[in-house]
Amino acid sequence: MSIVVDLRDAVVVFNGFPALAEASIEVQRGEIVLLQGPNGAGKTTLLRACAGLLPIVRGEASVLGVDLCVDRQSVRPRVGLLGHANGLFADLTIRENVLFWAQMVGASEAEVVSTLQRFGIDGRLAEQKVMQLSAGQKRRCALACLVVRRAELWLLDEPHAGLDASARDEIDAIIREACAAGATVLIASHELERARGLATRSVSVIAGRVVS
Amino acid sequence: MSIVVDLRDAVVVFNGFPALAEASIEVQRGEIVLLQGPNGAGKTTLLRACAGLLPIVRGEASVLGVDLCVDRQSVRPRVGLLGHANGLFADLTIRENVLFWAQMVGASEAEVVSTLQRFGIDGRLAEQKVMQLSAGQKRRCALACLVVRRAELWLLDEPHAGLDASARDEIDAIIREACAAGATVLIASHELERARGLATRSVSVIAGRVVS
Amino acid sequence: MEAQTFTARVATPTTRLVGAMALVSMAWVVIGGLFVTPRDVDQGDAVRIMYVHVPTAWVAYLAFIVTAVASACWLLSRKHSMGFDRVAGASAEVGVVFMAMTLLSGSLWGRITWGSYWAWDPRLTTTAFLLVTYIGYLAVRGLGGSLEQRARRSAVIALLAVLEIPLVHFSVLMWRSLHQKASVLSGDGDIKMDGSMLTTLLVGVIGFTLTFTWLVLHRQRVLAMQDAMQMTQLDAALRERANESENKSVIESSRLK
Amino acid sequence: MSTQLSLGRIARAVAAKDLRIELRSRVVINQIFPFAGLVMVMFAFALDNDDVLTRVAGGLVWLATLFSLIIIIQRSFAVDSADGALEAQRVAGLNPAGIFVGKALAVMVQLVTLEIMLFFAAVVLYRVELHSDGAVLLVTCVISATAGLSFVGTLYGGLTAGARGRETLLPLLMLPVVAPVLIGATRATESAFMSGGAAVSDGWPWVGVLVVFAAVFGLGGILSFGSLIEE
Amino acid sequence: MSTQLSLGRIARAVAAKDLRIELRSRVVINQIFPFAGLVMVMFAFALDNDDVLTRVAGGLVWLATLFSLIIIIQRSFAVDSADGALEAQRVAGLNPAGIFVGKALAVMVQLVTLEIMLFFAAVVLYRVELHSDGAVLLVTCVISATAGLSFVGTLYGGLTAGARGRETLLPLLMLPVVAPVLIGATRATESAFMSGGAAVSDGWPWVGVLVVFAAVFGLGGILSFGSLIEE
Ligand code: HEM
Ligand SMILES: Nc1ncnc2c1ncn2[C@@H]1O[C@H](COP(=O)(O)OP(=O)(O)OP(=O)(O)O)[C@@H](O)[C@H]1O
Ligand SMILES: Nc1ncnc2c1ncn2[C@@H]1O[C@H](COP(=O)(O)OP(=O)(O)OP(=O)(O)O)[C@@H](O)[C@H]1O
Ligand SMILES: [Mg+2]
Ligand SMILES: [Mg+2]
């Protein structure tokens, strides 16, 4: 039960193109694994497959003990995915966005406030509509929504992109804390230096395969 | 005539919020200037103002010798802006997207082919619809569209975000070439190390002002 | 995914038998419909359209019900066997063709008896809606995504769409209508029709049902082969990507010093 | 550890979120309402005959509602899928039945408001007379028809949301399915208006049809919404 | 150095791009056409009277065209503004008049195809009879009305494109403006159909109105599109 992600020769296909081509990876609880690799290698696809979003057409995949070939739904409440898109409601304010997700998992309002503070989007910014934010402020808000959900497995697709140095430090600290509390983290990133400092292990994704 | 960008106490307002608050900057022909600064500081706003996209409500601004307070249109054909969004047609292939822009400036087909090659999006990828690409592949395509336009002033908003190492090297080389040929470049970026290596000068944008 | 064993042969003795029986009964309908049965007192020779019109309508209903049943089987079966999904798809395709034939023959018939191709009549309109609904169903099947997702999505639509059939059937009772009230399936057991006409009609129904069965059997096998072919193409694509991976690894490892 | 909420609470949160977005952006109030009003005026133009208008007023109100429904549904899902928020809800494993009920509730509120406005417009533009005898019938008809329309709309909206180009599939899928609602609601409304000498009591069987319809699609949506929004 | 192209070449490139996107995605053909067909069927159902139908067939064809126009325009600009491509064209300083003419041309091609289909549907569904006397009138009317509709649609489409929530503003702005086209085209078409005993010659003045309308909005668009798509 300490193996959180276990893919064996997993294949994911888009319109006949195998974006994940017999990829195998095993991640233990508490690890922070960095996925590196060129553009179009399949990092995003791997993360989305682990979140139960994409059907595995061949091979085996189990996440948090759930076999994804049989059931892709039940694992989702326990997984948190930060994608290339932020997944925010543009007409709502930062606070309302984070509160929505907090409500969904029964997190308290105090927790919301402290998360907003950590990411530096409290005060005036918290009452600003998301569509009026800068790119980095939006990304911070997406991270805050993710953090209040307190998932067991964090799947972060380029979490550093668009953030300034202080926000990068903050998210790194939060990831370390979460891991210390028992969460597992997969990061896809092109900021290799920073991500390597954070990760406990790094693997390469190349042409749809995982290479150690 | 060798001063390409000249802002003096320029102010840009969104819904009453001064995103650019009396910013002043002067850029000479052939320079590569890095804009650094925290999230929400006003880097994107500064670049978009230089492209003639935002009205300057106070102060003075002239770009390529055109006074932006008087005429924000005529400067545009000479400026190339890469924004946070890629500005691609999702239903068209990479080749068709780049060709569209090439047609608009009368660039030759050979040039398109060589640009695609430089960014590693030729061959199979060139015939793929943009909506089926990975985030980095889209960004490469956006850069290719920009490059074929051969502008005099390049405004690049986080050109490195989402790109892998080889694409970053490629865009850096292209920027250097363009500068050698007489173009001027403004880059907003959070990849400070890489961008500092590329830039001839760097300034900080903080709370809507430019600080050297 | 189920095991992929298939042969390139779509015809089997059973389908050949079904095909032969379909041919025989259709020939019977042609002869009976055109030569044996009498002309109608009111409608004259136009009544002969009935031998196409009515069976195609009923067999289209049957096809849509088969689609719904196969969809339900797919949803309920533990293994989610793709066979059910393919039967559902094949049956809906044939059903759409038959329903279109009903509309076509009906409007020709209408031109002769009512003097116009189309009238704003509940039966006619609901029939048109039913056809459009199943065209929509086929569009949903074509949305893309994985085979499993295609099956799941279209199964839901099929189960909802089949509810329209009673609407079409009872529409003549619910609204004032130009169209024939049910004269065969009226439920009171009192059939108002000449003996040879009734026989020919019944043979027509059997013939069209056999044709439907034959078409669905074949179509479903072709679909199975398409799905299987996707799998073989996947093998080739995987091999291609593996080569790419080897080349890339070399470049990548040399670059990552 | 994420504790999942009950269907009811998710539905409430989703509906509250959708309505708040609407109140903030005022798109439906400021733009779709006038659109529906314009559609009514356009009909009057195209038909150009007072007697016909009064007779078919019920049908026109429901036709205008239907066209507006399409836009309301598109808007409701555009708000979610613009930046991948619908996908985020899916990824987070929120109970899809809760999302379905919540979104349908929000659509229902908007639709009822719209219908009240359209009935007023019908009175003014088409010279329809409201009778106190028909009031109960009219209200029941509006409620059941609206429920049915919202459920169908949300169901197909979810199916067609997300992927590009699918938005335009929505009317194609939805219109034939809601035809019974159009017919039932029109007939019931005509009875309530007593147009063309219809009796109020004639309307009740149609309301029955509407209730059955709403129940079928409500249940169908709760059971199947999860599979439909799945990619 | 960027050399700017002539209006004509930009318009050609833009139109080619829009039509290629349509041919590739088939959204208009596969989904908007059936939608328009359904709208025709729905009208007939709501009116429920053969004589009225034949008499107002012309109006209904143009009403269905109008509803489809809204969707076609939304689609045409959604394709551009989804990823900021319209802004990219603006930033690049492409001659806005060229963009306007190009997009309007692409809309025109789609609209004419749609109208041909709708007239066929009217013949079959509404029992309209086409007369050879009216053919020239009908063709001229279709061409001038379509040009007018495309220009107005593109103009307001550009105005409302881009910013969020504005899509729904489009019908509101556009419908009152195209009302003259609706009326003119309807009257001209009725003359061409000779419905209700109208004479073919009665239609020509209306065609004149349509031509003037198209000219005004074509010119207006060429002159003002630049300022409209400006943020
Ligand atoms: C476009 C025009 C028409 C359409 C779409 C149409 C559609 C249908 C459908 C769907 C059925 C099956 C009904 C059921 O059993 O539930 C049917 C049956 C039938 N139709 Fe038509 N029809 C059309 C025109 C006509 C005309 C013009 C006639 C004859 C004057 C006609 C005579 C019949 C008869 C006799 C039946 C069998 C009724 C029974 O026994 O239940 N139809 N039609
Ligand atoms: N719908 C699709 N149809 C066909 N190919 C697709 C589709 N979606 C993605 N791909 C391909 O799948 C491959 C993997 O994409 P993925 O997004 O996982 O890459 P990535 O490693 O995240 O890259 P990046 O670093 O650029 O984000 C890419 O080569 C892409 O072209
Ligand atoms: N429409 C708007 N209404 C109000 N404030 C806005 C609006 N758009 C942007 N802002 C504010 O303007 C400021 C500057 O934004 P800008 O996008 O220029 O920042 P940036 O330096 O590019 O940041 P990042 O590094 O995050 O991309 C931000 O604080 C943002 O909140
Ligand atoms: Mg990626
Ligand atoms: Mg920025």
Automatic annotation (TrEMBL), chains A, B:
Record's keyword terms, sorted: ATP-binding, Cytochrome c-type biogenesis, Nucleotide-binding, Transport
UniProt GO MF annotations: ATP binding; ATP hydrolysis activity; transmembrane transporter activity
Residue ranges of domain ABC transporter in the record: 5-211
InterPro entries, per the entry: AAA+_ATPase, ABC_transporter-like_ATP-bd, ABC_Transporter_VariousFunc, ABC_transptr_haem_export_CcmA, P-loop_NTPase
Keyword Signal: no
Any GO BP annotation: cytochrome complex assembly
Pfam family, one: ABC_tran
Protein name (record): Unannotated protein
TrEMBL record, chain C:
Keywords (A to Z) from UniProt: Cytochrome c-type biogenesis, Membrane, Transmembrane, Transmembrane helix
Domain Cytochrome c assembly protein per the UniProt entry, residue ranges: 15-179
GO molecular function ontology, one term from the record: heme binding
One matching Pfam family: Cytochrom_C_asm
Main location (coarse class): membrane
Keyword Transmembrane part of the UniProt annotation: yes
GO biological process: cytochrome complex assembly
Membrane topology: Multi-pass membrane protein
GO cellular component: plasma membrane
Regions that span the bilayer: 17-36, 56-76, 88-112, 124-143, 155-175, 195-217
Keyword Transmembrane helix: yes
Protein localization: Membrane
Family: Belongs to the CcmC/CycZ/HelC family.
PANTHER family attached to this UniProt entry: CYTOCHROME B_B6 PROTEIN-RELATED, HEME EXPORTER PROTEIN C
Protein name, per record: Unannotated protein
The species this protein was found in: freshwater metagenome
UniProtKB/TrEMBL annotation, chains D, E:
UniProt organism field: freshwater metagenome
Record's bilayer topology term: Multi-pass membrane protein
Keyword Cell membrane: yes
PANTHER family for the chain: CYTOCHROME C BIOGENESIS B-RELATED, HEME EXPORTER PROTEIN B
GO cellular component, one term: plasma membrane
Function summary: Required for the export of heme to the periplasm for the biogenesis of c-type cytochromes.
Name of this protein: Heme exporter protein B
Similarity annotation: Belongs to the CcmB/CycW/HelB family.
TM spans (from-to): 27-46, 52-73, 104-128, 134-156, 168-186, 206-229
Gene Ontology terms describing biological process: cytochrome c biosynthetic process; cytochrome complex assembly
Keywords for this protein: Cell inner membrane, Cell membrane, Cytochrome c-type biogenesis, Membrane, Transmembrane, Transmembrane helix, Transport
Key word Calcium present: no
GO molecular function, one term: heme transmembrane transporter activity
Pfam families, sorted: CcmB
Subcellular location: Cell inner membrane
Signal peptide start-end: none
